[in-house]
Amino acid sequence: MNKLSIILIVLFVGAGLISKAQNKEKLRRADCFFGVHFDLHASEDITDAGKTLTPEMVDTFLTKVKPDFIQIDCKGHPGISSYPTKVGNHVKGFDKDPLKIWRAATEKNNVGLYMHYSGVWDGKVATTHPDWAMVKASGEKSKEKVSFFSPYLDQIMIPQLKELSGEYHVDGAWIDGECWAVENDYSAKAIQAWKEKTGYKEVPRKKEDKYYKEYLEFSRGLFRQHMGKYIDAIHAYDPKFQITSNWAYSSMMPEKVENNVDFLSGDVTPQNGVFRSAFEARCMAPQGKPWDLMAWGFSWNGEKMPMSNKSVVQLEQEAAEIMAMGGGVQFYFQQNRDLSLKPWLAGTLSEIGAFCRARQAFCHKAKAIPQVALLFPTLSYRQNSNSIFPGAPEKLQATLYALLDNQFPVEILMEHHLKGRASQYPLIVIPECKSIDNDLLSELKTYIQEGGNLLVIGTETAQVFKDELGIESISPVEEKPIFLSAARRLGSVRSPLADVKLAADAQVLSTFYDVSDYRYKSQIIASSMRNIGKGKIAAIYFNAGSSYAQSKTFIIRDFIKETIDKLSPEMLIEVTGSHLAHVALNKLNGKTYINLVNVAGEHTNQNAVGYDQVPALSNLLVTIKGKPSKVILQPEGKELTTTVVEGKTAVVVPQLEIHSILEIRE
Q1: 478-522: pLDDT as tens digits
Q2: What whole-number distance in Å separates Cα of residue 313 and Cα of residue 578?
Q3: Rounded Cα gap, residues 497 and 462, in angstroms
Q4: E strands present in 327-409
Q5: Residues sharing a CB contact under 8 Å with residue 534, sequence separation 6 or more, in sequence order
Q6: pLDDT-derived band of residue 305, with 50, 70 and 90 as boundaries?
Q7: Distance of CA 469 to the CA centre of its chain
Q8: φ and ψ at 89, to 5 degrees?
Q9: Mean pLDDT of 400-419
Q10: Which residues lie closer than 8 Å to 565 by C-beta, 6 or more apart?
Q11: In terms of Cα–Cα distance, which of 600, 617, 599, 601 is closest to 609?
């Protein structure tokens, strides 16, 4: 069934049911699935806010698009509000109050209304109250960020959130400019607090300074307190107010949820949003909170080209990666400078909405079935970072992409997620890192003994598991190009290598080659495996994730797959036929779903700002452990022909356009 047919089914068969379900009551954010984000980051010079915005314009948009929620501009990074606030700083002139129009229309249509509000980043406050600003290491006062030791929360942010709740009755707020924007503060009050907290006299200002890592952790603690203060304050004022901090408890703040956020959310980088959505979705999904991710509706290529809108297909592809992991989706477009909407957006978003709604019943709030766990080694990354909230390094992201490119159903688990759960996973992958939380490390060693399969990737990571791998000696080898064999092909990689000598009971799986010729085999071991108790551990002795990030090649992808095959973890499903299909295996309402996402297209090309074609994949073979009664292709509702061989069920997906789901009926 082609894409047009699916859209017609949704529009003519399901649209009435969807609309009816939506209009029964306004959903809380925890139950929302499809939303639209408009922000403006208003500047002070706007003199006609609301001029061409009308109730009819908003009502028509909501009626056609049928979102569960809308997020609109309220206060962006410049610190200028686009509604006539009595608390903060607003644009120079209003033709009418845009927020009142939005509130009336969303209430009429039973759509949630959330505010885009910039928190730590407030340029107006930082410049008009320089004594409230963060102070940089150089002693210069920030012109963008406010200090945690200023009265900003008490005099501006919390009162303004209360105003939005009390005067406008908005449903909540999405606080932007937060963890990812925080800088070390060297104001007098910050330095005093540092000395009182630590007892240190030194104030580290450069990454080379003594205690600099401790100062970063001090700053993290200040942000956690800042976030907790405004969240608790608005909840105390209005318990129904739903609030989050953009990118809190995500890859950018990879830690256990401690503050009382109502949901998690983040806006995915506009370039290569397909792969980045796959990564960020897997970081948020295990956190135990309702979550959604935002796809930017436009992109650009630096100064070479101004902002250009993405196509419907492009955004559907990004959304598919999010939905496949059980998340909600929202799409970001900008308002006009007078706060009005671009009329063409309703058509675009209604088409995207139809695509998403067709998959909602099979995806939203689904939970991953444990198969492959990729560790997010938070402690190691923080110990080796010079940023407060640095985000996940490319080497971790690329390790995920290599696994997904091999059609493995992968979850990303932070250390606090994996503790106590290791035994649930047939395979655990440890990416490049220098250390692992001691308690988790002990659990992983027990996991191997009791029958688990552990893959260790990277030169430094191998040293963490030196005893388990049977490494008798290990020495670094100067980084140089070297050749690798996988799937009967040779290819080059460039990485620091680990020259290891192994115990007699460790099995060498492969070695490197000095040149692109099978006659010139290197003495340096590329991978090995060792049986321990009932389980196995394998290692790859070069930085495969970093190498895949720098120079993506089928050799690294296939080498990782061959190493995993030697471990032979017992997987519930196998997908073959194309390396351009990403796979997610989920449970929802007692049913099993296999998500297949087509990642063909030009999204990895940084110069391809927009593309509108994704070549379909044909004849994917899906092998399922067991004998289900039926396999239904969703959202078409088409039963597929199955073949049972040796206790496994094989089914062919004839065509994968963007996102298809196999519903497995027992």
Answers
A1: 888 899 999 999 999 999 999 999 999 999 999 999 999 999 999
A2: 20
A3: 11
A4: 328-334, 367-368, 372-376
A5: 449, 450, 451
A6: low
A7: 32
A8: -110, 130
A9: 98
A10: none
A11: 601
Instruction: Encode pLDDT of 588-619 as tens digits.
Output: 999 999 999 999 999 888 788 889 999 999 99
Closest listed residue to residue 115, CA positions, set 55, 155, 171, 34: 171
pLDDT in tens, 220-247: 999 999 999 999 999 999 999 999 999 9
Task: Report the C-alpha dihedral over residues 290, 280, 71, 348, rounded to 10 degrees.
Answer: -120
Cβ partners under 8 Å of residue 557, min gap 6: 402, 405, 406, 486, 548, 579
The mean per-residue pLDDT over the stretch 440-453 comes to 98
Size of the chain in residues: 666
**In one letter, which amino acid is 416?**
H
Instruction: Tell me the longest C-alpha to C-alpha distance in the chain.
Output: 81
Half-sphere exposure of residue 495, counting CA atoms within 13 Å on the CB side?
Answer: 29
Q: Which token pair is 646?
A: 């040796």
Distance CA 556, CA 545 (A): 9
Closest Cα partner for 610 from 175, 301, 240?
Answer: 301
Confidence label for 666 from pLDDT (cuts 50, 70 and 90): confident
Looking up tokens 């692109």 gives 516
Is residue 290 a contact partner of residue 264, using CB atoms and an 8 Å limit?
yes
Q: Which of 169, 14, 161 is nearest to 88 (CA)?
A: 161
> Which tokens belong to 182?
């925080």
Q: What DSSP string describes 235-296?
A: HHH-TT-EEEETTTTSTTS-S---S--S-EEEEPPSTTHHHHHHHHHHHHGGGSS-EEEEEE
Q: Which residues contact 577 (CB under 8 A, 6 or more apart)?
A: 617, 618, 619, 620, 621
Residue carrying the six token digits 């080659």: 513
Q: What angle do CA 383, 386, 387 make, to 5 degrees?
A: 105
Structure tokens, 308: 């250009």
**Contacting residues for 86 by C-beta, under 8 A, at least 6 apart:** 163
- What does the alpha-carbon distance between residue 601 and residue 357 come to, in Å, rounded to a whole number? 23
Distance CA 252, CA 248 (A): 7
Q: 635 preceded by cis ω (within 30°)?
A: yes
- What does the alpha-carbon distance between residue 482 and residue 498 come to, in Å, rounded to a whole number? 13
First to last CA, the chain: 25
What are 552's two structure tokens?
Answer: 């993506």
567 Ramachandran zone, left/alpha/beta (phi>0; psi -120 to 50): alpha
pLDDT at 269: 87
B/e letters for 45-84, b = 16+ CB within 10 Å, e = fewer, are ebebbbbebeeebbbebbeebbbbbbbbbbbbbbbbbbbb
Pairing of strands 34-39, 507-513: unpaired
Q: For strands 69-75 and 112-118, give the pairing.
A: parallel
The CA distance from 225 to 222, in Å, is 5
In the block, which residue shows the tokens 């730590």? 120
Read off the tokens for 16: 């009435």
Residues 6+ apart with CB under 8 A from 599: 274, 275, 278, 317, 321, 404, 580, 581, 582
User: Which residues is 302 bridged to in the sheet?
Assistant: none
At 34, which amino acid appears?
Answer: F
* pLDDT given for residue 52 in this prediction: 97
Cα–Cα distance measured from residue 546 to residue 527, given in angstroms and rounded to the nearest whole number: 17
Instruction: State whether residue 66 is helix, strand or coil.
Output: coil
